[in-house]
Amino acid sequence: MSLRLYNTLTRRVDPFEPLAPPRVTLYTCGPTVWNFAHIGNFRTFLFEDLLRRYLEYSGYDVFQIMNLTDVDDRTIQAAAKAGVVLTKHTEPFTQAFFEDRDYLRIKPAHVYTRATAYIGPMVELVQQLLDCRIAYRSEDGSVYYAVGKFDTYGRLSQLDKRELKAGARVASDEYAKDNVQDFALWKAAVPEDEKVGAAWDTPFGRGRPGWHLECSAMALTEIRSRFGIETLDIHAGGVDLIFPHHENEIAQSEGATGRTFARHWMHGEFLTVEGTKMSKRFGNFLTARDLREEGLDPAAFRRLVFLTHYRQQLSFSDAGLRAAQGSVTRLGEFRDRLVLAARTAKADLSAGNELETQFRAAMDDDLNAPEAMAAVFSFVTNVNRELDAGAGPEKAAGWLKVFDRTMDVLDVTPRKAAVAADLAAWVAERIAARQQARKAGDYAAADAIRGEIAARGIELEDTPAGPRWKKRDA
Ligand code: AMP
Ligand code: ZN
After folding, report:
1. Which of 148, 234, 356, 452 has the fewest beta carbons under 10 Å from its own?
2. Cα–Cα distance between 158 and 156 in angstroms, integer?
3. 29 in ligand 1 pocket by Cβ < 6 Å?
4. Can you tell me which atom of ligand 1 is nearest the CA of 238?
5. Does 426 score more than 90 pLDDT?
6. From the alpha carbon of 28, which atom of ligand 1 is closest?
7. Residue nearest to ligand 1 atom 8, measured at CA
8. Mean per-residue pLDDT of the chain
9. Which residues pair with 20 in a beta bridge?
C-alpha cells in the first residue's frame, strides 16, 4: 500500500500523487509573529512535522516553505502599542519561534519567507489581478478581489452563499467594497500603519498587503523561481484557515495563473482546553517556553500530540502530559536496553519486519500516528520478552535499526536517553575491543581499556556468560 492522505478539496482520503516525484513541494502557513506561538499553534506545526518526516521516510524529496506573517492587523497593532517600528516588534518573536521549534524538535523548513520581504511580488500579483479585472480599486484607495469573477469560489470550504456572506463580515475588512463577499488584497494606509512603518507606495496607492495575498505571492514566488512551477503538491495549516484564508489564496493564485494552486489541501484540528479552542483571545493558552521552563521533555509533548489523529480535536491536560512522560521514559529505557544487547553485532535485518509493516500501514493511512504509536509499544513488549528469553545481539541490532527508523519520524524518545544510549554504545564498543585484545593475548591493552571504562564511572564484571557492566552508584 502507498501513502493516502485526506484532501480537504475532495473531502476524501485520496492516494497521494505529487506532480513530479520524488519531489514534493509543501507550503505550510506559519506563525503570525506578533507574540509567542502557543502550544495550539505548535500542534499544527507538529502535524506538519509528522507529515514532512513521513514523506521523507517514504522516499520523497520534500521542499518545505513556511511563511512568517510579519505584517497584518495583529502585528501592526502590537507594534503600535509597544511604540516601535514593525520589524523591531516582530523580529524577537521570530527568533523565539525558531527557538521553540528547535526545542520541540520540529525540522526546520527549507525556507522561511517573511511577508515584508515579498512586497514586490505581492504588488505584482495585485497588478495582475487588476489588469484582468478580477480586482478593483475602491473609493478609499484599497484594492478588493471581486469574488463573483471567480467561478469556483467556495469550493474548498464548501460553504453556501449565505454562509460565505456571514464569513466575509467577520473577516476584518472594514473598508468599502462592491460586494460583501469581496476581500481586501491591498489595504489603503491608515495613520497606525504609517506610525510603525507598515506602508508601501505602489501604482495603485500607498498601503499594505492583506494577509491572504501574502501567502499566494510568497508560495508562487518560491516555487516559480526554484522549480519553474505554479502548483504546490501540498498546502497545509490549521482548520481555521480553510475559510477564508485558503479559499482566498486559491482565488488569488488561480485567478492569476489559471493553474491549480495546490493538489492536496491538509488541515489539522484544534488543540482545545476543556472543550474550547486554545487561543490568545480566550486567555487559555500555554506557550512552548512555559513547557520548557517546567523542564518538560519535548518528547512527551510530541507523544501527547501524536496520540491523537491530526483530524481529531486534541484535548490538552496536565494528566495527559504526565502519562506521555511516562511512556517516553519507557521508550528511552527500551532503547538503552537494545543498544546494550546489540553491542557491536551486525544487524539481523529480518528482525523488526513486523514493526516496519505495521508502522507503514498505519502512517500510509492518512498519517495514523496513534496506531503507529500502538505498533511501537506492542513491539516494545514483544522484544522485551524475547530479550528476557536470551535473544542474540544480531537480532537486537536489527530491532534497534527498525526502532530508530520509526523514531526518525515520531521522534519521541527522551533526550536524556540519547545521552545514556551514546554512553552504552561506547561501552559496548570498548568491551568488544577488550575481548579482542584478550583473545590476541595482549593483556596490557585489555587492562588499559578496563581502566578507560572505569574512568567513565562504569563497573565491569567478567561472568561465565561474558562481561557485564553497570554504572557505579554516584
Ligand atoms: P497564527 O499564528 O494565528 O497565524 O496561527 C498559526 C497556525 O496555528 C495556523 O495554522 C492556525 O490554524 C493554527 N492554530 C491556531 N490556533 C490553534 C489551536 N488552538 N489548535 C491548533 N492549531 C491552531
Ligand atoms: Zn497562509
Report:
1. 148
2. 6
3. yes
4. 12
5. no
6. 10
7. 41
8. 93
9. 23
Ligand with minimal distance to 67 CA: 2
Query: For a pocket test of ligand 1, which of 8, 41, 43 has the largest count of ligand atoms closer than 8 A to its C-beta?
Result: 41
Read off the pTM. Answer: 0.88
Q: Whose CA is nearest to atom 21 of ligand 1?
A: 270
For residues 474 and 472, what is the distance between their CA atoms, to the nearest angstrom? 6
- What is d(CA 18, CA 231) in angstroms, rounded to the nearest whole number? 10
CA of 69 to the centre of ligand 2 (A): 8
Q: Which atom of ligand 1 is nearest to the CA of 31?
A: 2
* For residues 440-447, average pLDDT: 92
Q: What is the pLDDT of residue 166?
A: 52
Distance 233 CA to ligand 1 centre (A): 21
Environment class of 240 (CB within 10 Å of its CB; exposed 0-12, middle 13-18, buried 19+)? middle
pLDDT tens, 165-206? Answer: 555 544 444 557 889 999 999 999 999 999 999 999 999 999
User: By CB neighbour count within 10 A (0-12 exposed, 13-18 middle, 19+ buried), where does 314 fall?
Assistant: buried
User: What domains are defined for the chain?
Assistant: 4-288 (3.40.50.620), 326-471 (no CATH)
- Cα–Cα distance, 134 to 350 (Å, whole number): 60
